[in-house]
Specification:
Elements: H1 8-26, H2 32-48, H3 53-77, H4 90-94, E1 98-106, E2 109-114, E3 117-122, E4 131-138, E5 141-146
Parallel strand pairs: 3-5
Antiparallel strand pairs: 1-2, 1-4, 2-3, 4-5
Helix pairs in contact: 1-2, 2-3
């Protein structure tokens, strides 16, 4: 049994849509699903109206753009709530953390120990060994304040 016997190019597009849908489930990224939708639309259209391969590829490109833009708008208008909104924002996760001054902080700055690393810091004068709280992170610079006794 050949592909022509079960729908030809239309069936091939539907199989591609299924493969893209499975890929989205296996490797979640919320992108392949939009390509799967585009492939399904082209597959159904090709089953109804046989068109040349060039037109199918062009239609897939157009539908891919359309579905991605619709999906982008959807996720902008209806964002997915996260149990940890700062999951991939290391700087935001550090704010409020209490750390130890590694190199005394003076007018020129100093360094603080965060986890297993040393970060440049600015803030009020503090001697090495003093505990301070991170109030802001600007780029790679940590802004600290004294910890109240």
């Amino acid at each position: 049994m050949t592909l022509d016997a079960i729908g030809g190019a239309g069936a091939a597009w539907l199989i591609a849509a299924l493969a893209l849908g499975v890929a989205e489930l296996a490797i979640p990224g919320v992108f392949a699903i939009f390509l799967a939708i585009a492939a399904a639309v082209v597959g159904i259209a090709t089953l109804v109206v046989p068109v040349p391969v060039e037109a199918q590829i062009g239609a897939f490109a157009v539908w891919s753009v359309v579905t991605v833009l619709v999906g982008k708008r959807w996720y902008r208008d209806f964002p997915v709530a996260s149990s940890d909104p700062q999951l991939n924002d290391r700087s935001a996760r550090m704010v409020g953390e209490t750390v130890v001054v590694e190199v005394g902080i003076d007018a020129d700055g100093g360094r603080v120990r965060i986890g297993d690393g040393s970060w440049p810091a600015r803030g009020p004068i503090a001697a090495a060994g003093t505990r301070v709280r991170i109030v802001e992170v600007r780029g790679g610079l940590v802004i600290v304040e004294p910890v109240d006794a």
